[in-house]
Structure formats: C-alpha cells, structure tokens
Amino acid sequence: MKIGYIRNSRITQENSVEVQNKLINDFCENNRIKLDKIIIDEGISGSGEKTKMRDGYNSIIEMIHNQEIDTLVVISISRWGRNLGEIYKSVQLMETKGVKFLSIKENIDTSTPYGRFTINLLSSLYEMELELIKDRVKDTLKVKKENGKVYSPTPFGFDRVEDDLVENKKEKRLLNKMYKLKNGGLSYGKISDYLKRNRHRTKSGGKWTPNNVYSIMKNHMKDQKITPVLVWFIEEKMDKYSTTNHSVNGEKLRRKSKLKIEKFYE
Length: 266
Prior knowledge:
Blueprint: E1 2-8, H1 17-30, E2 37-42, H2 55-65, E3 71-74, H3 77-80, H4 84-96, E4 100-103, E5 108-109, H5 113-146, E6 158-161, E7 164-167, H6 169-183, H7 188-197, H8 210-217, H9 228-242, H10 247-265
Parallel strand pairs: 1-2, 1-3, 3-4
Antiparallel strand pairs: 4-5, 6-7
Helix pairs in contact: 4-5, 7-8, 9-10
C-alpha cells in the first residue's frame, strides 16, 4: 500500500491541507506512483508531546508494524514530525520493515544511496542531540547543587519549598537518633525494627527496612563498595552467632569482623 501523509498545525497555516495534497499528488503523478490514500492530521502540532494526539500518524506507524505499507510520501520531514528522535526512530522502523520513505522538499528517497546517507546523517544528529541534552542536564544539576537548590528527590531531613531545601526538624531529630543507634552498635536491621516499633514512617509514608535505613544514612559512609543487603546480612549473622553457645568466640568474631566492615558505614 502506498500512503501520503499530510499534517498542519493551524488551519490558516501556509502549508494547508489543500497545498500539501496538491504537491503530493503532483509528485506521485510525475514519478508514476499510484497512491492508495492520503492520511491527514489537521490542526495538530508535530512536537513530541503531541504525538499521541496524532491519530493519522499513529495509524501509519501501526500499518508499518503490520507491514501493510511499502511507500510513504510527505512534502517535507517537518510535516512528518518535529522531534528529531521520533523522526529517526520512525524512519529506522520503516527501513527494517522495507518501507520506502519519500520526502519531496528534501529530495529524500530511502531506497537510494543519497537517501540512506541522509538517514545516517539524521542518526548522527540524533546522537549529538542526546549528548547535548545529557550535558545540559549535568550542568543544570551541578549549578542547582552548588546553590543549594533541589536537584533530586527531596532527601530525608528536608522539605522542598519551590527549588529550595528547608530543614525538617522532626526528621532531623529522627536522623540523629538513627546515628546514635548505629554508633551504639545496632545493625541496620535493628534500627529499622526500632523505627517500626515506635511507628516512625519514611519520607513517602512507608515502613522502614534495613535497606532504606542504609540508604538514608549512606551519604555518611566513607566507602560505598558494600551493599546494604550485604551489610545487613553480615550484621545479622554476627548477632545470631554471638548469642549461640559459642558466645565468647562469637563476640570475638563480632569485634574482629566489625573492625573490617566498620570503615564502610561509620
């Protein structure tokens, strides 16, 4: 099936449905392409967030997946889409499904060497855009962090007021209590038991576990090579061993082992 696609953002746009329709039909007639139908998205932006609202576009993508199309004709790439990533991915999909993509104004035919070169160029531009986005995000997070602004989920011990962090005194007191318990020799498992027993809740209102206790406190660890599960496992095993009939040897093992792992979490 050979399909033409038309899109305009505004009814009064220069590239109206009538203009695009004539350009596509003239092109197909000159190149002996017999269209089966033309699909239209009228009054809809081609930007990424609007894609779900483009019924015509989505129906064509579905037909491509079902291998119902062999040729797609548009007057320009900008009519097919405005988001570089979506354009590249859709054209790549067409290539894998054996669909010829024709863009009249750019003179693109993906069945020709020039057309394939253009798609490779599109791929490179897409990769470059992704890298630029990553760099912009890193720079933004760095500036926010340096200026004390919120750059991640609100940490325990603070509340978010717009882009600023304000100390939550109640959570800070609880956090100090957790450190006191840790310095007193309690494991993460025992600390979570204490918090649950006293009906304390996490930032999201959930129950405390050894893992999220560790996560809250891990910023104060000197070395994060050891996982929360492993720390908890070691501590719990030492607790059990030291309370068996081998209590003397168990206590020696506890002191010796604790020295080895203490550097990881205190």
